Every structure is written in C-alpha cells, then in structure tokens.
C-alpha cells in the first residue's frame, strides 16, 4: 500500500504546491497555503463498465417543476423558484443578512406545507430560534439542527419524508470522514460539497450551501465548488445603506445577472417591489452633476442616479475617485470628452458616484456618466424628467444598446418625459407612441454642446 504524502494546498484558490511557501503563486495571496495529507494513488479498477443508453436531442421531457417560496424577489433571482434536486451556493460578507434571508425563505416555504430542514454549523439551535423569534417566524414548522458531520446530516435528512429544501450554513464548517483534512480546508469543502450534491441529485431535495467570502468579495474555497453547483448567488450590500441586493452570477435553470432588492428593517428583510422609485427618492433635481441612468439588471429595468463632481485641483496629479462605476470606463470617458468633446479636465479632480449603493456595470451607463460630468463642469442643471442610456466609443460616437424598449417603459412609468439615447437606436412602435420625447445623440460633441447651452456660466473647459 502506498504511503500518504503531504501536499500543500492554497485555501483561497485550491492550487497545489510541492512545498510550503508564504505566497501562493496562483492567486497571489499570502499565508493561505496549508499542509494536508494525500491518501496517495488509489488502486486501478480493472472491472469493465456497463454500457448505457444514449438519447437524441429531441424529446418530450417537461420543464423542471419549480418550488416557489412566496418571496417574489428571491424567486425572481432563482428563475421562478427552486428546481427539485438542484444545489445553490449563496455567498456574502459576514453580517450582511444571509442567515436572515434564508430563515425567512425557509419559514415561507414551510408554511406552504413543504418539509424544510435548516442545518447550522456555526450557531446553536437556541441562537437560530432567537433570530426566528425576532423575525416573528417562530411558529413556522422549520426543522432545526446544529451539526457539522456530513454523514450524520445526510442520514438525518433521509429519515422520514423527503425534504423540499435543506439549508447548510455554512459549507466551510462541514466535515466528512472521506477526506482526511481539517474542517474548512479545500479538501474538506470539496468533499463535503460533493457528498451533498450527490444526495440532492438522488433524493430530489434542493440544497442551499452558504459560503464565506474573501476580502475581495469572492466566495471562499476552491473554485470547483462554484462549477459543481447549479446556481451561484451573492448577497451584497453596504453597511451605510439599508438596501441589500441578491444577484445570480450563475444559474443553470434561469437567467444570470438577475437581481432581487431587499430593505433591512427591524422585522427582517422586506422586498422592494419598485427599486427605481426607492433609489430615485430624495434626489436633488436642481443641482448640477446628476443624471438618471436607465439601466438593466438581468431582465429588470432599473433607473439609478449617477452623480459627478468636477472641481479644480491644486495637486500636480488630479484625483479620480469612483464608487459604483468601473474605474477604467471612467478614465475612457474622460479621455473621450477631452479628445472629442473639447473639455479640459486635466486640472480638475473628478468624483463619480452611483447613488443608493448600486453598481452601474453595463456600458450603457457611459452616456449618463458623461452627461453628469459635463453638467458638473459647466454648472448646467439637467432636466429632472430626462433619462440617459447609451455606450460611448473611443471615436466619441454614441452607440446603441440592447433592451431599449424596456428602459423607456420603466422611465415613462416613473414619470419621465424625455430620454437621451444613441442616434441609431432601434425603437419599437409601441415606445414611439408612448409619448416619451426621444432626444437622439450622435456623439459626445453634440452632448457637450446641448448641455452647455443651458449653463449659467462656464466653470472651465469648452
């Protein structure tokens, strides 16, 4: 029998090294390499496999049945509810509200008559009960346990009626006898996830794995876990805001990029049915440097405010600070405004912020960001009922974007009367008859000239 030999595995990315070293050569993190035991090469099986039947692409299979929790924002992100036998990975920073969200989802599903099991590896049963009592959910028939041994958990879940939903909080605390390593290590996380995945596929129970996140916001542990599961959800938020966003970065049974918006209240997480109205509430429409962006989060249109402040600097190198917007796209927009818009921004500090703790990641936000920058530089106040969307190219041209109809309908629903968009943007007949005034924009030079006309005075630039 071959002797076991030590291996050194990075606990952040799962890379294997032949010896210990302070810095992982794969991900670059320090002090993440841990020694683990390797059982050595296994004996080669000489038994012959059994052939199985192959099928064609055409068939009469019905769509997978969905398990609806009743929390609309949660069901939206999962694609209309949980699929039986699927495994989901939910990540988020400590204290963001992952356990609160899952307790509410478990209670909502249990009250609909389904068997729900909540396994906590980090908290005692009494702590989970206290949270449920604080959220007025103590009467929900959710089955609780505090355990970390995967084999014991699976044996308990298999005893009795099949569970519709099993929550494992968290996967980093689980331990299986199959892997000879300490809990929380890459080997243990991978082996525990594989055992839970096999149980979900054979039993038909939906399993949600809660995962810790690293300092850069990525789900901790080996990347293979994200590839194993059917959906990867991230629960995001800012300690300075009450809003929380649930995003789907991977979903085998639905669209990716979907977002669910919640508000943290004294009674837990409350759904936000109309996020656009919430994020635009209280904005100062009479101040320069603010533009409303008609964006898309998955299949949901959403209006958010992009704020800019352009101020003269006394430093040799002007500052560029950005929150909620891509730093590289801001640099590109500033360069295009200088090269093709005639603005002089080299001696100005530039600050760009997306209000409400949101993020504007899609290129369609270029036009709104440029409008906010020009408005702040010139002092011109943009119309309060005007929305922007469009991508800016390096030539200065404004390019069309997708889902224009959905963006315009969302803007009209919230009382906007004007929309600035690319000149070549394709608009459906229904949107043209809706009464929303469309302002085509060919390039950034036209954008700068239009905004500068309403400026009370020039603070700098062209």
Automatic annotation (TrEMBL):
Domain remarks in the Swiss-Prot or TrEMBL record: The middle region has homology to RecA with ATPase motifs including the RadA KNRFG motif, while the C-terminus is homologous to Lon protease.
Pfam families (UniProt xref): AAA_25 (PF13481), Zn_ribbon_LapB (PF18073)
GO biological process: recombinational repair
Keyword flag Cell membrane: no
GO cellular component: cytosol
Region annotation Lon-protease-like: where it falls in the sequence: 349-462
Family matches, as SMART domains: AAA
Signal peptide feature range: none
UniProt binding sites for ATP: 92-99
Function noted in UniProt: DNA-dependent ATPase involved in processing of recombination intermediates, plays a role in repairing DNA breaks. Stimulates the branch migration of RecA-mediated strand transfer reactions, allowing the 3' invading strand to extend heteroduplex DNA faster. Binds ssDNA in the presence of ADP but not other nucleotides, has ATPase activity that is stimulated by ssDNA and various branched DNA structures, but inhibited by SSB. Does not have RecA's homology-searching function.
Name recorded for this polypeptide: DNA repair protein RadA
Domain of life: Bacteria
Gene responsible for this protein: radA
GO molecular function, one term: ATP-dependent DNA damage sensor activity
Record domain RecA family profile: where: 63-213
NCBIfam families: sms (TIGR00416)
Keywords: ATP-binding, DNA damage, DNA repair, DNA-binding, Hydrolase, Metal-binding, Nucleotide-binding, Stress response, Zinc, Zinc-finger
Family: Belongs to the RecA family. RadA subfamily.
Keyword ATP-binding part of the UniProt annotation: yes
Motif position, RadA KNRFG motif: 250-254
